[in-house]
Amino acid sequence: MNNSKKNIHLSSGYIMPFVGFGTYKIRGTDVIHKVVDESLKVGFRSIDTAVAYRNEKDIGCALKSLLPKYNLQRTPSDHGDPKAIEKSVQKSLKALNTTYIDLYLIHWPGVSRTSESSTKNSRLRAKTWDKLIELKKQGLIRSIGVSNYTIKHLEELLQNCKDTPPAVNQVELHPHYRQEELIKYCKEKGIHVQAYSSLGTSSSTNLLKDPIVVKVASQLNVSPARLLLNWALQQGIGIIPKAIKKKHIRDNIKLNFVIDEESMKALSCLPQHKYAWDPSNVY
Asked: Which residues are part of a known binding site for substrate?
C-alpha cells in the first residue's frame, strides 16, 4: 500500500481514514481534551471509542470546542439486546454531541452474561444487525461493522445480512497474531480490516521488545512502535493507535516510510501469540 493514501472507500459508500486515534483507557475531561486537541492538530481525523470506555461524554465535550476546525469521523461500539441498541446509539449521539455516527460496531460476537456456547449469541447477533440496519436507514449511523468476528461469525452474518454487509471488522492484529486467513477472507468479501492492539497490550511489552522488531526498526531508523503500525498499514489494514504523550501521538501518524519486502517477510514470520480476548469459542 502507498502510505500517501489516507482513506479507504468502505462498502457502505463512505470513506474512512486508514489511521484513527484510539481512546481505550484514556479518561478524564482535561486529559481527553488535551489528547483530542493534539491528535487533531497532527492530522488524525477519526476517533475510536466505545460505551465500555466510559469516555464518550468527555470526548463529546472536547469535540464541541474543537470540531469547527476539522472534518472528523467518530467510531463508537457496543453490543447487546436489540431493544437496548437504539437507546445506546442515542446515548452515544448525545454524549458525542453529534447528529450521526460515522461507523458503529458490534463490539463482540457474544452477549454479556451469556455462555459462549449458548445459541442465544447467534440469535441476538442477527437481531442486533437488523436493528443497526434500521438505524442506518434512519440516518443515525452512516456505516455499520463488527469487532472481534471470526470467519465463522462473518459467514453467518453474510448469509443473513439483508444486503447490508459489515463495512469493517476490527480485530486484534500484529506480527505476533497475524490472522492471515481472516484478512484474506475479509478482502474477498469487501470488508475493511482494522487492527487493534497493534503494539501488543499495556500489560505486555513482548511485541515491542521482540528482537526482530527491534532489529528491523533500528535498520530503518524508526521506533518499534512506528514499525509495527506501518507493518499493518502497508498491507492495507487500518490502525487505531492510542497515546497520551504528545510525542507518541505525533509519532503514531508519521508513517510515510517504506518497510522493504525482506523486512516485511521477517516480521510476518514471528511466533504467534494472542494478547487480547479470544472470540473463537463464541457460538
From this structure: 107
